[in-house]
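Regression test case RT-17, inverse folding.

Input:
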């Protein structure tokens, strides 16, 4: 099973309608909407993808397939931006 963790290059600032992430190495910004910010908050706590998906199902009117697609797509984007990395779960 794959888990995700924040990289040391990631810096985040929470805004009223989301968050802005900065990759300290590339100096590139990445913005998150409210849902993306909830995912980021869970990643800061070391939560795996499955509990994040469950949280979105409980908090938003979304079906499981859409929640899963949203979370996994965002995780892939964050990995691509160098803000999150895939690691083996312990």
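Golden output:
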């Amino acid at each position: 099973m794959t888990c995700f963790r924040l990289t040391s290059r990631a810096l985040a600032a929470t805004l009223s309608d989301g968050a802005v992430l900065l990759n300290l190495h590339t100096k590139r910004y990445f913005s998150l909407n409210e849902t993306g910010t909830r995912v980021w908050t869970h990643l800061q706590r070391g939560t795996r993808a499955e509990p994040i998906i469950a949280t979105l199902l409980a908090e938003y009117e979304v079906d499981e397939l859409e929640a899963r697609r949203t979370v996994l797509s965002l995780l892939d984007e964050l990995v691509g931006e160098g803000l999150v990395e895939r690691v083996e779960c312990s």
